[in-house]
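Hi there, hope your week has been kind to you so far. Please have a think about how the structure follows from the sequence. I've dropped the whole record in just underneath, so have a look:

_____
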Amino acid sequence: MGKSNGYRNNWYYFFVYQLKSISPPQNFSFPAFLKKHFRFTGPLMFLAIWSWVNNYFDRFIIEAYLGLKDVGIYNANYGLQ
């Protein structure tokens, strides 16, 4: 019981007392932050969209040519690989 109480006190100390002392920088610029953020995450977002297209586009093609029943069969078998 004593250890869990100590852990709880440490958690409370960190999140309540320590985070109160953290303040944002005075020269914070939100547009500059977004520019820096998208410079890093832009390629990752492109990769995520491309991966989705690469993984799921075949289901749309199968539906267009064969039908929804065949898409269900393909999807069930695709998950077994």
User: Anything to note?
Assistant: The chain has three helices and no strands. The chain has a mean pLDDT of 80. The CA atoms of residues 35 and 41 lie 10 Å apart. The two ends are 48 Å apart (CA to CA).
